[in-house]
Amino acid sequence: MPEIVDMPTAVERWAPEGACVYLGNFGAQLFAVGHELIRAGRRSLRVVMSSGGILLDQLLGAGTVEEAVYAHCWSPVGPLPAWNFRRLHEEGSGPVRFREVSLGILTSGLTAGAWGVPFAPTVDLEGTGYVDEDWTGGLLARVQSPFGEALVVRAIEPDVAFVHVHICDEDGNGVLRGPHGEVAAAAQAARAVVLVTEELVPRADVREAAAAVAVPGALVAAIVVEPFALHPDGAPGRYDRDVAFYERYEEAARDEASFRAWLDEWVHQVPSRDAYRRRLESS
Amino acid sequence: MGSPGPVAGRLPAASGVVLTAGADALPAFLVRAAREFAGGGWVFTGFNWPLLAGRLARSLYGDAFTQVFEAGAAANVDTRLLPTSTTDYAAYGESCCYLAETSDVLFGLARRLKAVLLDAGNVDVAGRVNSSAIGSYARPHRRLPGGGGAPEVARGARRLVLLHASAGLERLVSRLEHATCAPAEDAEVILVTPSAVLSLRPRPRVVELLGALEGPPAERLRGLGIELDQGAPELRPGRDELEAAALVLREAAGRGYVAARRWGAGRGL
Which residue from A259, A269, B19, B244 could staple onto B211, CB 3.0 to 4.6 Å apart? Predict the structure, then answer.
């Protein structure tokens, strides 16, 4: 049975320095996890994120990331740039290694990891920079087989997958309310899964929603019960995406100094998601 | 594409508005994009303009179509709120008839969809889109956000509809230096702009006019070697269609859409 732990414990035990961390979910980003990674002082994480959005931007700006495998990075409200991401690319990325993938490449790579095979086929993207300019940094290859030629992706096998769920039971069976993105493949590919749930519920409640269980308990090492884990993203049926917060962040992140001030106010000075929520309510 | 006509009972018969440049350009652009949903079917919407087109299409055509999102969802009624992006799941509400995975949409559905609508801020006459970098990839002049799921869904599309909203067509070029998305060789590729609709296959040509094609956009097209067919059919949106589009733009401004805010600011809204 998975352990029920708090967020600092989850980060300490499953996301040490150098770890390859899948940070879910596509579009519903685990800001609660990312902020804890920043507070824990991580400097060498290899992150795998489908829609990096502003969480990846915050991790980059905080110096948490050594390598990023990502499909896009922006502020989805606007849409507007992710300014740390842009600065790193336009002014020199320093120590950060970027591997730009598409969602299909990412999904195929995680699927290969899930199946325990060295690679998996994907949609042939010849004629795009992923293939022609090797934007993925070596994750793609072309193979010949008796059945034909295919573009394939190297297996992606995170050390840990942090996955957000709507509800889960004590066995770690996690229910998604909304589209699944690539979380199932990520959970199956990872060596360990930490479920971050809005609510822990009785087994019977999960059985009622069994068709929406995206992460079975067999994969789950730990559960963190963290309501409001996605803010400023929304959780269907619970809270909406906070457009105003996104806009204030985007404005703050345009400038490095104001980004640092933002990070201090919303990450370093708030030791928990509860404290974050109280700050938000009083702001 | 001829006018599909309004859903019975929702709008009066279109009298047809002769478009002038400026005031109606973006609403008309949105009306034309929304017509891709007319007649039903499953239509993929990427972020930004395709989402707004989908919202307008609900207003014009009701529940006749199913709107597909890259995260693995399909909605056959209006979303609860206008999504701020395709990943704004809380905004979907109870609109979804299908909840699945990204791979289901990108790999399984893309080639079976009626049309794929993508935002195309930087596009070339071959229908390729650059959302990765302007300038050297290693050290770009401008780093763009990346492609997300657009590369696969563009490659799988049978009918790829690219929405390019720049009035002067400055970012329509003969060949992009980087391609994030490229359509399949046998795909039908349509480029919708505020001035005209172009078919890009087998060779780029104007197939529909959104008002008089003159000034900077006409010069741009001539510079790209694209014949300006002033005899092409003209989009004549109904006044109600344009007003519905304006309502969507106002809603979008409230939901953080920058392009919609700029449009509204130009009108003192």
Answer: B19
- pLDDT at residue B14 tops 80: no
Q: Tens digit of pLDDT for each residue in B94-130? A: 999 999 999 999 999 999 999 999 999 999 999 999 9
The pTM for the full model equals 0.95
- Number of other residues whose CB lies within 10 A of the CB of residue A173: 25
Tokens of B140: 């770009």
Distance from the A77 Cα atom to the nearest Cα atom in chain B, whole angstroms: 6
**Chain B residues 45-104 with a CB less than 8 Å from chain A:** 47-48, 69-73, 81, 84-93, 96, 99-103
Q: In terms of residues, how long is chain A?
A: 283
Residues B178-189: pLDDT tens digits?
999 999 999 999
φ, ψ of residue B81 to 5 degrees: the values are -125, 160
Could you identify the residue written with the tokens 């969507």? B248
Which residue is associated with the tokens 């996890």?
Answer: A33
CB within 8 Å: B139 and A89: yes
> Quick one: pLDDT at residue A93?
61
The minimal CB distance from B47 to the residues A79, A133, A178 is found for A79
